[in-house]
Structure formats: structure tokens, C-alpha cells
Design goal:
Helices cover 67% and strands 2% of the residues. It has nine helices and two strands. The chain has a two-stranded antiparallel sheet. Helix 1 (19-41) crosses helix 4 (83-95).
Length: 224
């Protein structure tokens, strides 16, 4: 992430807001789109009700977490964007990420008990992983820690990404349509790029990173 002091001056009209603000707006757009779908199509099955519950609660928690932990607003996506970047965030994170919701509302097949169990399990476990990782890292950094490589980070170096992927997988499972898996696949590709960049940055910044690298996996415990 770019340190706050390296950001362009606030008067730079071409980059007038942070990526985080754009993403927050996109999350609100996702909520709005899902509610519009519910109003237009109707909630006719447990599939639609469950999808609304999972995806809207995910978006609202994203926003609530920043209020509960204000320091995260400075650390999360501080890079500046202009109108084009803001619009891209709305389309990519706000609209495209709503695709599983559209598919869930257009799916006439009642959701099975197995899909409910799997979807709720993935979402719950992913949320626990992600929240635990964020709280541990935020607390450690506030106390002046350097590289955070214990606790939930001990075996997986990018465990917060793993938690996020499990939640996006849960949306696809509940949607019950193969096209819904396009979103977690795209998220995975983005995370793979970020993982490569962060590995290089951490190796250069922390001498103890190599030892952590040898005893842990990037994303999937014991696999990769």
C-alpha cells in the first residue's frame, strides 16, 4: 500500500478521492442493486432470501468495520483515483460483483438443503477468518509490531484473501448457476497478482520474512 505521505496533494483534480471511497460507494451500489432486484423480481424462494442476507450483510460489515476500526480507513486502499477510476470501481465492484445475485433471482429451482449448508458454512468460516486476520493485524500494528506471522497468520501468509474467497464462493453456491463462479474466479486472479506484489514487498522490508515463507503457504494451507 502507498504510505499516506506519498499520496498526491488533495488539490490534484485528476485524482480527487481514494480507492477506498470508490470501493465503499461500489458496496452501497451492490446493496441498492440487490434491493432493486428483490423489488422487481420478488423474493419467491429461500435461495433469494439467503442470498440477500449473505451478500448485503457482507457489504454492510465492510462499511461498519471501517467505523469500528477507524485506523483501517487510512491503511485500506489509500491510492488516489479520478473520475475514471471511480466509475470503474462502481462497474467492477458494484455491478459485476452483483452478478451472482442476479443469477440467484433468475434461478427458478428451489435451493437444496446441501447448498444452504455449504453456502452458509463457507460464508461463516470465511467471515471468521477474515475478521480474525484483520483484528489481529490491526491490533499488532497499533502496538508497534513489524511482520505479523503468528496466530491466524502462522500457516497462511495471505489468510485474509482466503477468507474473502470463501465468502465469494458462498455467493456462487447459493446462486446455483455456473456463471456465478466467474466472480470468485476474477477475485482470485486479482488476489494472485496482489500476492505476488506483496511477497516482493515483504521480502524487501522484513528480514524474518524468508523464515515465515519456508514454514507457511501463500493462500491454501499445505498446498500453495
Amino acid at each position: 500500500m502507498t504510505p499516506a505521505e506519498d499520496l498526491p496533494p488533495a488539490g490534484d483534480g485528476s485524482r480527487w478521492t481514494s480507492q477506498l471511497t470508490a470501493i465503499n460507494a461500489a458496496k452501497l451500489l451492490t446493496v441498492l442493486l440487490l434491493l432493486v432486484l428483490a423489488a422487481l423480481v420478488g423474493v419467491n424462494d429461500g435461495r433469494q432470501a439467503l442470498y440477500l442476507s449473505l451478500h448485503i450483510s457482507y457489504c454492510l460489515w465492510w462499511l461498519l468495520e471501517q467505523w469500528l476500526f477507524p485506523e483501517r480507513r487510512r491503511l485500506l486502499f489509500p491510492e488516489r483515483v479520478g473520475a475514471a477510476g471511480f466509475a470503474f470501481a462502481l462497474l467492477f465492484v458494484g455491478v459485476l460483483y452483483s452478478l451472482p445475485g442476479l443469477l440467484a433471482f433468475l434461478n427458478p429451482v428451489p435451493i437444496s438443503h446441501g447448498a444452504i449448508a455449504l453456502g452458509v458454512g463457507l460464508f461463516s468460516f470465511g467471515s471468521l477468518i477474515n475478521a480474525s486476520a484483520d483484528v489481529q493485524k490491526s491490533t499488532a500494528k497499533a502496538l508497534g509490531a513489524g511482520l505479523v506471522s503468528d496466530g491466524i497468520w502462522r500457516r497462511v501468509r495471505h489468510v485474509n484473501y482466503l477468507g474473502d474467497l470463501l465468502r465469494y464462493l458462498s455467493f456462487a453456491v447459493v446462486a446455483g448457476n455456473g456463471w456465478a463462479y466467474l466472480v470468485p474466479a476474477l477475485v482470485l486472479l486479482i488476489y494472485l497478482q496482489r500476492i505476488g506484489q506483496k511477497e516482493i514487498q515483504m521480502a524487501a522490508k522484513y528480514p524474518e520474512f524468508r523464515a515465515w515463507q519456508e514454514r507457511s503457504s501463500r493462500l491454501l494451507p499445505g498446498i500453495w
